[in-house]
Amino acid sequence: MVKPLNEFGGWLKFFQIINIFSLILVTLYFLSTLYFTAGAFSLKNPLTNELKLSIAFMFTLFPALFYYTFRILKSLKTKSPHVPDEISGFIRYILLFSVIAGVVEITLFAAPDIMKLVYDLFRSLIQPIVINIIWLMYFRKSVRVKEFYGQNSSTDLSSLFR
Q1: 138/86 Cα distance (integer angstroms)
Q2: Tens digit of pLDDT for each residue in 116-143?
């Protein structure tokens, strides 16, 4: 049954589920990087470039992604007019970190094959940009967001990186 628009449900619930899933994946990626790093050190093997990048991301991007995703989850069910703007701000930071990670990954591991490069560009840059812009627009235009929180986000695409 569909919940009334002034209750938590619909795409807001889906957004919550996606963020829980993201939090789990970031945590698993963090733990797997620790595991492989420990294995490389214990076997005294040289670290691969991919592992070096994962270690760098583990100490720079992962804590930020974890923090902002956690803050989104913490804010989601709070019925307050400032929450859509707060969540939109967190989404902008996640978008920024995702683009930085994508640029670094493509710069360091660019495939010589044009088809693989196009795939990497889509997976690492275009996909996170599109997904995050869709969520930013959802918090700006959604009737459920307006009914549940009392107002929509005032964020527009021109203020994306302010």
Answers
A1: 14
A2: 778 878 888 888 899 999 999 999 999 9
Q: What DSSP designation does 48 have? A: P
Q: Is residue 63 part of a domain?
A: yes
Range of the domain at 29: 10-155
- Write phi, then psi, for 80 (nearest 5 degrees): -150, 140
- Report pLDDT digits (tens) over 59-114: 888 888 889 999 999 999 999 999 999 999 999 999 998 888 888 877 777 667 78
Compute CA 158 distance to the chain's CA centroid, rounded to the nearest angstrom. 20
Domain count, the chain: 1
**Is residue 123 a part of any domain in this protein?**
yes
The identity of residue 37, as a single letter, is: T
